[in-house]
Write a structure and sequence with these properties.
One of its GO terms (molecular function) is identical protein binding. Helices cover 47% and strands 18% of the residues. By secondary structure, it is an alpha+beta fold. The longest helix is centred in the first third of the chain and has 21 residues.
């Protein structure tokens, strides 16, 4: 091992890079397979209901689904507009 390799490490080969990328793709596909079938419909319906009662754009609403300790967690984040003050109405 030369001093340069020791200081800077070995350059990753293209095969190693390809293997790492493939592992990432496989992990993403597994997550997609585990997502419930009803999730896209649920997300769409939640957005429709929210838009009836709160005036926000679709960009202000974020829905994510993940597993935590073997339990499915649906997280809904909404950036609400500033509400007018009592004297401003």
């Amino acid at each position: 091992m030369s001093l340069i390799e020791f200081l800077f490490g070995k350059k990753q080969t293209s095969a190693q890079t390809a293997r790492d990328r493939l592992q990432i793709i496989i992990a993403q596909e597994r997550v997609k397979e585990q997502a419930p079938d009803y999730l896209p419909t649920l997300q769409k319906e939640l957005l429709e209901v929210l838009s009836k009662y709160v005036h926000v754009s679709l960009d202000d609403i974020r829905i994510s689904q993940e597993k935590q300790d073997g339990v499915d967690v649906l997280e809904l984040n909404i950036t609400l507009p500033d509400s007018p003050k009592k004297g401003d109405v």
